Description:
binds magnesium ion; Rossmann fold; two-stranded antiparallel ribbon; alpha/beta
Amino acid sequence: MNIYLDIDGVLVGSRSPREDVIKLIRYILEHYPNNTYWLxxxxxxxxxxxxxxLKQNDFPVDLVDEMAKAIRPTDWGxxxxxxxxxxxxxxxxxxxxxxxxxxxxEAYYVMDGFYWMDPKDxxxxxxxxxxxxxx
Length: 135
Ligand SMILES: [Mg+2]
């Protein structure tokens, strides 16, 4: 199974406590070290600025280094769904979904691969981790 990770509203700029976000990241790195991909505006069009952005947002350096090694870049332009391998099971963690992206997921019958994280919910990272553990 592949994991797709947004950053803004998911890892950065959400009301989830940082420690919960870090627990989620550590779980992903431990269980999906070869199958995790960035799916964020900080990594698109062949440019990957995720690591800089996470460092600027005060994530622990050792964790950021691990993420830099393990999490793979994607290359997409307009729709994030263009970067998703629809032939593989996946979970895509994001705080937003465009109508066109939703239609694409529906067309492939993979809407259940999308996991919405509410940036206003302080429990969002905790819930996402529970969801992942139960998956
Ligand atoms: Mg976002």
